[in-house]
Amino acid sequence: MKIGILAVQGAFAEHKTKLEKLGARCVELRKKEDLDGDFEGLVLPGGESTVQGKLLRELEMFEPLKEKIQAGMPVLATCAGVILLADHLSNDGHVYFGTMPVTVKRNAYGRQLGSFHTIREMKGIGQVPMTFIRAPYIEKCGEGAEVVAEVDGNIVAVKYKEQYGLAFHPELDEDDRIHEAFLNSVKKYAKKNSPNTWL
Ligand SMILES: NC(=O)CC[C@H](N)C(=O)O
């Protein structure tokens, strides 16, 4: 199984380490040509969404990536990644991929106090450690978007089709279960879309 990790800016290396530990092959997506590869799942890491959005356009990676997501490629988006997926930002005029029907608030916990750690329930997984760094949260879920975790009444994890959006950073904690669950959904998706499913 091969996972493409957006690597133009932000915390991509930690995702790579974790996914490789779990047995996946990873390709860092740094330029347009990297998108021609045969990866079956996509990671959008944390970082600075405005910078990532700008670089994606400048590097002409934006449209081809959006097409892959729209075509159903499983995505694990963390922090800035969920800002890129949202179809609405409540405190920012930008919309990036807009492939997930959620309203996201950037820097929702305030710029200074926005970093904290907690352990909360995540649907289908159980109690997981959650590290928030100048994090957004999800204010509203549209049709088809499912709330997967909340912290103090704020939505911090959503699933929409094969897109998983997390306000926190599972790549920074020891727990591997979120990445494992993502790899399982990539496996299922790849199998479904393989020309050999009749075998
Ligand atoms: N850790 C993160 O990814 C922070 C996201 C950042 N505050 C943004 O708006 O892009």
TrEMBL record:
Keyword list, A-Z: Glutamine amidotransferase, Hydrolase, Lyase, Pyridoxal phosphate
**Superkingdom of this entry's organism?**
Bacteria
* SUPFAM superfamilies reported for this sequence: Class I glutamine amidotransferase-like
What does the record give as EC number?
A: 4.3.3.6, 3.5.1.2
Q: Report the function annotation for this chain.
A: Catalyzes the hydrolysis of glutamine to glutamate and ammonia as part of the biosynthesis of pyridoxal 5'-phosphate. The resulting ammonia molecule is channeled to the active site of PdxS.
Q: Which Pfam families match?
A: SNO (PF01174)
How does this polypeptide assemble, per the annotation? Answer: In the presence of PdxS, forms a dodecamer of heterodimers. Only shows activity in the heterodimer.
**Which pathway features in its UniProt record?**
Cofactor biosynthesis; pyridoxal 5'-phosphate biosynthesis
Gene3D superfamilies in the record: 3.40.50.880
Q: Where does L-glutamine bind?
A: 47-49, 106, 133-134
* Family under the similarity heading: Belongs to the glutaminase PdxT/SNO family.
Active site as annotated: 79, 169, 171
Task: State the name under which the record lists this protein.
Answer: Pyridoxal 5'-phosphate synthase subunit PdxT
Q: Does the keyword rRNA-binding apply?
A: no
Give me the reactions it catalyses: L-glutamine + H2O = L-glutamate + NH4(+); aldehydo-D-ribose 5-phosphate + D-glyceraldehyde 3-phosphate + L-glutamine = pyridoxal 5'-phosphate + L-glutamate + phosphate + 3 H2O + H(+)
